[in-house]
């Protein structure tokens, strides 16, 4: 997991990265060396890519002069799929949409879409449907279809792909497979009727 601590008074951003490896008495895992290709997205749509190395259970990375007009600097993580790991961040729904609109890394944009799609499915699964979120997701998908239809159709196929039930289980456990499948099919129908 990666969390942000933003000290507005000093303009310092701290990224707190943790790795969690399951172990048992017979098999204790050592910490992995995880390269995190990242950048900080600000209101001027400007990002400076850099690489962080997570080689401990927990590590703090500090950035000075991260001042911005946003409430908190937004991080674009694992750019270019820099490491094959599962992770979660503290980015809000609005921050994920902002990242999709302003980031220049296709993997980061795809991952933001996946996070939003999972939110919609899990909300539906728990009877907490957020119509505004659904509308914003559909609008963002439509904008990206227009943006990339003549540039990168493989990317379009990727962002329109809904996570499988098995993939959803990796992000939320335990789940009710029957309800998840209903929510999954409902979202596919919604996308199909709204976009195509």
Helix percent reads 40-55%
Q: How many angstroms separate the termini? A: 36 Å
Main beta sheet: strand number and arrangement?
3 strands, antiparallel
- Give the topology string: H per helix, E per strand: EEEEEEHHHHHH
Poorly predicted runs are: none
What is the general shape? globular
* Sheet with most strands: strand arrangement: 1-2-5
Query: What percent of residues are in strands?
Result: 15-25%
Number of strands: 6
**Rg measurement, Å:** 18 Å
Structural class: alpha+beta
Give the averaged pLDDT, no decimals.
86
- The tally of helices reads 6
Please write out the topology.
Layout: E1 2-7, E2 12-18, E3 34-41, E4 50-54, E5 58-63, E6 74-76, H1 93-102, H2 106-125, H3 131-148, H4 153-159, H5 165-171, H6 177-195
Antiparallel strand pairs: 1-2, 2-5, 3-4, 3-6
Outline of this structure?
The protein is of the alpha+beta class and 196 residues long. The protein has helices at residues 93-102, 106-125, 131-148, 153-159, 165-171, 177-195; strands at residues 2-7, 12-18, 34-41, 50-54, 58-63, 74-76. The strands form 2 sheets. The chain has a 3-stranded antiparallel β-sheet with strand order 1-2-5, with no helix packed on it.
